[in-house]
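ARCHIVE CARD
Drawer: 12
Card no.: 0347
Subject: one protein chain, sequence and derived structure
Cross-reference: see card 0346
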Amino acid sequence: MTDRSRISWRTLAVVSAFVAALALASAGCGDKTTVLTAPSPQLAIACPDSQTAMAPSGQPVAVSWPAPATSGGTAPVRTTCTPSSGSSFGLGSTTVACSATGAARGETASCTFTVTVHPSRLSVTTFMAYGDSITWGKKSDPVAFVSDMEPENDYSYPNVLRRLLAAGYPGQQFTVLNEGKPGEAVAAGLSRLPGELALGAPDVLLLLDGANDLLGSPGSATTEYIAGQLRQMVRTAKALRPGIAVLLANFPPQWHGSVPYDRGAGAEFVPELNQRIASLAAAEGATLVDLYGPLSADIKRYIGADGLHPTEAGFALMAETFYAAIRRTFETTTAGRR
């Protein structure tokens, strides 16, 4: 055999061995599958909408918001915001920065939104409290005579209301006129009303009247009569001062007093009268202010020994009740939102 023949046979053997080895490798790996893992989608974060709040006293207020939404990234994904939800914010706009962090190295995303706190204000500034001795501020101390010409008591509900308004809205100046007249019947109050409206020019009429009529003649006919006179007062106010708002109060509770001058004679008819007052408020477009409910919670704390006139604590609670109704009805912001 020549050298050429030996080389050919050698080459053929090498090629055959390679083919056999390749076939063996293919046979041994036929049951294996190579899986390629796709990378996680890029981490993204979406902040909540910008937030607005009001500060009734101009002080910082707590503001909360929903957690930012995230997508993509490697779980678990954690989010944080600075300042955090529920933090206190002062007047003006504050930027809140939120971030998301995934489990994989370097996975982060961020977004921002604003929290704006507006100073709240009232859309009205001049109030007229109108009625009888309960409005004027007579306590149940047994005195022979009380005159509206005497100095107004510091604890009267209009005076307390004035202080509440000044503290709640320090950037505004308020007038709270006390036009309560002790001993006056509701018909006389109706006759007096036009002149007082012209003189005081109120934005809001706070109306509570008729206690002397119910005291003098307790009964269903009297409750109907008082409601009719109050209806005429509401209509008179709206006719003489277009745009005026009327906050019509129902009667505080009464009880049969223990002093020689028991003035709680109409106690049993107060609920009936208050139903009539609620109906006429709805019909005449007046805002009903519920004094009966709060003062009934502890009647002998809030209504004095004569069974009719409030105590100092009662006058304070009346003022707080009117104040809450005023806030609900007239509060606005400098941005013009209610």
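Annotation on reverse: The CA atoms of residues 149 and 181 lie 9 Å apart. Confidence is low (pLDDT under 50) at residues 1-7, 11-15, 21-25.
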